[in-house]
Amino acid sequence: MRIAILGAGPAGLYLGYLIKRRAPTADVTVIEQNPADATFGFGVVFSDRALEFLRDDDEQTYAAIVPRMESWSDIALVLRGERIVIDGVGFAAIGRLKLLQLLQERARSVGVELAYRRAVKDLSELDGFDLVVGADGVNSLVRRSLSDEFGASVDYMTNRFAWFGTTKRFETLTQTFIQTELGSFNAHHYRFTPELSTFIVEVDAATFERAGFASMSEPEASATCERVFAEALDGHALISNNSIWRQFPLVHNARWSHANRVLIGDALHTAHFSIGSGTRLAMEDAIALDKALVAQPRDLSAALSAYEAARRPILEKLVTGANGSAQWYEHFAEHMALKPVDFAMSYITRSGRIDLERLRKLSPKFVARYERERS
Ligand SMILES: Cc1cc2nc3c(=O)[nH]c(=O)nc-3n(C[C@H](O)[C@H](O)[C@H](O)COP(=O)(O)OP(=O)(O)OC[C@H]3O[C@@H](n4cnc5c(N)ncnc54)[C@H](O)[C@@H]3O)c2cc1C
What we know:
The strands form 4 sheets. The chain has a 7-stranded mixed beta sheet with strand order 6-5-12-13-14-11-15. Strands 8-2-1-9-18-17 form a 6-stranded mixed beta sheet. It folds into 3 domains: 2-38 and 96-155 and 250-329, FAD/NAD(P)-binding domain (3-Layer(bba) Sandwich), CATH 3.50.50; 160-239, D-Amino Acid Oxidase, Chain A, domain 2 (2-Layer Sandwich); 340-373, no CATH class. Helices cover 39% and strands 23% of the residues. The longest helix has 31 residues, at 300-330. Helix 10 packs antiparallel against helix 11 (300-330). It is α/β, with parallel strands linked by helices.
């Protein structure tokens, strides 16, 4: 079988590895427009139990990635200078480029062909392949080319965000909320190596306008954010890497495959970055598609239907939670009027997946503080 996977992000690289690992005679090519050492953004976090989902079926990849991660067991919110710690909410982080390099090594180790610096402009370039996988991210060419067939839609959140890095080391994943004369600012920040941290700045549409970010150059916008977050940054600068202001896209597809073309990862769906799950979901899609291909080795159409039937219910639950979180951020300026402890409770229950009883078990210290101080 000849398989073309478009996109060498986490979804495409991991799918290539999984398929070739179990079917060494398959001809698997991953095609990527960028060089192997290029990436956007800085570190990414994994929520819950990090990469536990890999452990059972793929101990080697798990063992390659986990020792390179930074991890912590609490998160912190800072509002009006007051710090509220929510215990028991663990995350682990890794540099996006480091993760891609580790996945490239895994893919090469089983004989996947990695074709970098090749931008596919038209899907007809992939006509000779038996299976074409669109692992080509948010702006997927595969999805756009077959938009009606997939029943695809993309809606945009109104907030703007810019993804920076910094040399400031943060002890735990922290969310800092600041009110200035320009408006309301939020930063999601956490370390992903001992020396480097991700620093994502988010503003609502009104603040974006008032601050004049639309007409600022990247260095000007970065300098404005450095001034706003001077205390959190503690004298460290923000580092840019194509850190332009963007609106988060909500990608949805009514159908996941058409003929021999199928979507995985961000090409198929997005999950707001505030729940730290996009990368994990992309890799889990790869696992689900590989399993479906194994179960139906001679009937591609049945395999692609089985992939969607098995994965969609799980994915929709997660995406619903992610959308709840995204909506909370759309209104974060209003939530900032709350007392810090009420604000923290509103934050931690934002995706609708956790109630007070569950939280009492998960975050006993935070709930005790909340019950002492709530209004
Ligand atoms: C600000 C921000 C913060 C985030 N933080 C986190 C986080 O903390 N944790 C987390 O899990 N997720 C996070 N995410 C989401 C995460 O980055 C994505 O969910 C994940 O990268 C999806 O993987 P993917 O392989 O599907 O797509 P991508 O990683 O986007 O990879 C797609 C690849 O396809 C290539 N490509 C596209 N079109 C073509 C073409 N025509 N020809 C050749 N190549 C092509 C692209 O160059 C790219 O390399 C964040 C996202 C954003 C925007």
